[in-house]
Specification:
- By secondary structure, the protein is an alpha/beta fold.
- It contains eleven helices and 18 strands.
- The protein folds into two domains: about 160 residues, Cytidine Deaminase, domain 2, CATH 3.40.140.10; about 250 residues, Rossmann fold.
- The radius of gyration is 24 Å and the shape is globular.
- Bound molecules: zinc ion (ZN) (2 copies).
């Protein structure tokens, strides 16, 4: 599948600009960073170039052409950077637009020309109508799914095959509707970490009817996990956690697609494979893996929902405990902006065991076992899944950072904002794909 991905609200803004004149077609040229994935590309819109009146060679109710003076410098810019070029135009007379024979003729010339000028990356055509979009690869005509990513996740067109609704989902369809159920079913999710929170996520997503999974966990089940991993039993001790995850999914779904990756998400090549997902659940405690997913959320514009539990037991004071879920996506602050990552700890986590031994500043404090209670890991997971339901189906859920304070029995949405020019979530970093600051790629075993 090929996705054309906009950060919110740029798709809506582009649509408004192109439909400003209802009497004639309008055009624009977009530049996008192409990120290859297992079954296609994720084209990340980096720049939107809107022409002025004088930049058109021809502009009628059924035909539009931009002048070479406008188009050629942008074609050159795309070629120099290895970016994809997306020619975009409006059909102001159509609600759900369809490519015309004029479009077919134009692309028969433009497509091979672009492939010749700027080979190796796909070039596309985006069509804007009053209520819908259509998009395709210029030479092959392969349909492109158009996605807008922010606090919500909108799929604007070519969302895949028709989805048959199943009776077992009737009661949730009453809550978020048939369209909501279809959107959920088409979603490709990645779950990183299969502990207390990750196993609850997998359990819930499979019961909600999601069929496409990427599962990432390097660890095996030990006896002390059995108090909170959904689906894990005595017989799973010393078995990989992702085997349990697969079983939990197959209990609920007849023919799911599951990609199990038994490795740490910071290992070479592993983080990059998550670019196949539409939405990622971050269910790990390590700062290095959370930093990895934080990068992916903005570089590749894939929303990540981070979650966690805190339980602090100190002499002489009552137990402090809580749970949180936080969505990371373009337009929302990243974990660095919220001061939730520790650079020193990341550095230590990414070291080889020998480097750690030799490091005079290394303390073993992180290796101390933390308290863990299933009701709290499940609260964090439920907050995260409900947030995902809101992002995908549109059910109201204002908070994208929600904190549950156990002792006070209070649940609060918390406001936070991005720091200016943040190198991770700032405008410069969003949508860079394989360019810019790289992902973590360690070659040694992480533990
Ligand atoms: Zn057209
Ligand atoms: Zn940031």
């Amino acid at each position: 599948m090929i996705d054309l991905v906009f950060k919110a609200p740029e798709l809506q803004r582009l649509k408004q600009a192109l439909l400003d004149d209802k009497s004639r077609e309008s055009a624009a040229i977009l530049l996008a960073t192409p990120a290859a994935r297992a079954d296609g590309f994720r084209l990340l819109v980096k720049e939107i170039h809107l022409p002025a009146e004088g930049d058109y060679d021809c502009r009628t109710p059924t035909r539009v052409r931009l002048s070479p003076d406008f188009a050629i410098p942008l074609e050159r810019r795309a070629k120099d950077r290895g970016w994809s070029l997306i020619y975009c135009h409006s059909h102001p007379m159509q609600d759900r637009p369809e490519f015309s024979s004029i479009d077919d003729d134009a692309e028969r010339q433009l497509g091979p020309y672009m492939d010749y000028r700027s080979p190796g990356v796909p070039h596309a055509s985006l069509l804007v109508g009053n209520t819908g979009f259509d998009a395709r690869i210029m030479t092959s005509g392969e349909p492109i799914r158009v996605v807008e990513v922010g606090a919500e996740l909108h799929f604007a067109c070519n969302t895949g095959e028709a989805v048959l609704l199943e009776d077992q989902h009737n009661r949730q369809i009453l809550a978020f509707g048939e369209e909501g159920q279809r959107r959920l079913h088409s979603l490709r999710v990645a779950i990183v970490g299969f502990g207390g929170t990750g196993s609850a996520i997998v359990y819930q997503l499979s019961r909600l009817g999601i069929d496409q999974y990427i599962l990432v966990d390097w660890d095996v089940v030990d006896r002390t996990n059995l108090n909170r991993i959904y689906g894990a039993t005595e017989g799973d001790i010393n078995r990989p956690k992702i085997e349990v995850a697969e079983r939990v999914i197959r209990e609920a779904r007849a023919s799911p697609s599951i990609v199990p990756i038994r490795a740490d998400v910071t290992k070479r090549g592993v983080g990059r494979r998550l670019v196949d997902a539409d939405l990622i659940f971050c269910c790990t405690d390590s700062h290095a893996s959370r930093d990895q997913l934080n990068r992916i959320a903005y570089k590749y514009m894939i929303p990540v929902i981070d979650m966690g539990v805190v339980i602090q037991k100190n002499e002489g004071v009552p137990l402090f405990y809580g749970a949180q879920a936080t969505m990371l996506a373009p337009g929302l602050p990243c974990l660095w902006c919220m001061d939730r990552l520790d650079a020193k700890r990341i550095r230590h986590e990414l070291m080889t065991p020998e480097q750690r031994q030799a490091d005079p500043y290394f303390s073993n404090a992180n290796a101390v076992k933390q308290p863990a209670v299933i009701s709290l890991t499940s609260t964090a997971a439920s907050l995260a899944v409900t947030m995902a339901l809101s992002a995908v189906t549109g059910i109201p859920h204002r908070g994208r950072y929600v904190y549950y304070n156990g002792a006070d029995s209070r649940m609060n949405p918390t406001q936070s904002s991005s720091k200016p020019n943040c190198p991770f979530c700032g405008a410069e970093a969003v949508g860079n794909g394989d360019y810019g600051d790289p992902l973590h790629e360690i070659d040694h075993e992480s533990e």
